[in-house]
Specification:
Organism: Haloferax marinisediminis
Protein name: Small CPxCG-related zinc finger protein
Order of helices and strands: EEEEH
Helix content: 10-25%
Strand order of the largest sheet: 1-2
Number of strands: 4
Largest sheet: 2 strands, antiparallel
Strand content: 25-35%
Length: 69
C-alpha cells in the first residue's frame, strides 16, 4: 500500500516512508509522512532553523535559555 508524501504528494511505499513526529509536552504538534527526498529537505531545513546563529558581536551573550517548570 502506498500513501502520498505530505511534502510533494507522490506515492510513498512503506519501506521508503519516513515519519516525522514533533511532540511538545506529549501533544503532537506535527506529524508527516515523507518520501526520502522530502525527508532530506526537512532535515536540512531543521538543521538550518535549529542551529545556533552566528554571534552578532556581543561577547558572552547567548540566545539559548533553559526553562524548568
Amino acid at each position: 500500500m502506498s500513501d502520498p508524501c505530505d511534502g510533494c504528494g507522490q506515492p510513498v511505499e512503506d519501506a521508503l516512508a519516513r515519519a516525522v513526529r514533533l511532540q511538545v509536552d506529549r501533544s503532537t504538534v506535527d506529524d508527516q509522512r515523507l518520501c526520502p527526498n522530502c525527508f532530506a529537505d526537512w532535515i536540512t531545513r531543521y538543521k538550518d532553523e535549529m542551529s545556533p546563529k552566528a554571534s552578532d558581536g556581543s561577547a558572552g551573550s547567548s540566545d539559548s535559555e533553559i526553562i524548568v517548570d
